[in-house]
Amino acid sequence: MLNFDDNDAPNGGDESGEESGEFAQEGKKMRFKASEKRLINNKRVDVNQLMPLKYKWAWEHYLNGCANNWLPTEVPMSKDIELWKSDKLTDDERLVIMRNMGFFSTAESLVGNNIVLAIFKHVTNPECRQYLLRQAFEEAVHTHTFHYVVESLALNPSEVFNMYNEINSIHAKDNFEMKLTEEILDPNFSTDTLEGMQKFVENLVGFYVIMEGIFFYSGFVMILSFHRQNRMTGIGEQFQYILRDETIHLNFGIDLINGIKSENPELWTQEFQDHLVSLIREAVELEIQYAEDCLPRGILGLSAPMFREYVQYIADRRLERIGLPKQYNSKNPFPWMSETIDLGKEKNFFETRVTEYQTAGSLSW
Questions:
Q1: Confidence band, pLDDT 50/70/90 cuts, at residue 235
Q2: What contacts 16, CB < 8 A, 6 or more positions away?
Q3: What is the model's pTM?
Q4: Which of 158, 199, 216, 279 has the smallest C-beta neighbourhood within 10 Å, fewest atoms?
Q5: CA-CA distance, 254 to 260, in Å (whole number)?
Q6: Distance between alpha carbon 100 and the CA centroid of its chain, in Å?
Q7: Which of 148, 164, 208, 241 is catalytic?
């Protein structure tokens, strides 16, 4: 664990660049200032020179992620197993659970791959890289979660993990995201040009704003609806942990996007803004198709038409946070979700649940 005194505290550094650090190069001490750090295209320091901190928001996201440390195997599944084996779940309820297992099991791995193979290489700031390493671990934990659920409920793993090939709405969402990674994985891709920076920001919007900020949220509503009725509580508790992770992921991604915009204002052209809006509008329609696929007849007071309004409501919030205009002006059809999804990370997500971030070993439920 890192220890800071009053002069070295993460929030105590000067973002103007007056604070500086040292590193050795060819036997000579070289000094650099925090102001020399940049989120992308920084050729000044090649090692992960964390101090002095410049982007304290990235460090705070890292600390919050560490405080939410957990593993799926810490959550008991006995009640879920008993309910799943009984005749107390309808076919439509089982369909919702299976569809969500199928989507999330592949989506989390796509996010992890994108961090490691696409984003990490081009984000040159050490504080952000520190967080990306933490997020990559969390994506592995989330993938582990769905493996744990499949084993616990004795589901057919081939059926769950192959849904992205067999269920059109899941395939469409996964394919949408994979297209945003293809060009960045080209060994010759660079963010040195305006076009390269825009393509990179497009990827960040695609994964942080769309995948983690829109595509995941219908699934959260569906699974947490079971949990509100004290059913499938093991899966519900794991989704609570995932939701808290995803809240930080989303906040980090938005801070990163806005930071890159601030440092490179030339990339934020009207044409590029219009392109991002069109991507988000396309994603909204894909998510609505997924909700219709999961809820052909409606369960638990949920219906597919309600999700059109909800996804549009969520999309408007994401658009505003990266400086783009709202498109829908829809209302939240699930007011109870304000206690679970829509509040900031420092607030109480769930009644009678965790009130602050802490390590899983000390959580009181």
A1: very high
A2: 35
A3: 0.84
A4: 158
A5: 10
A6: 16
A7: 148
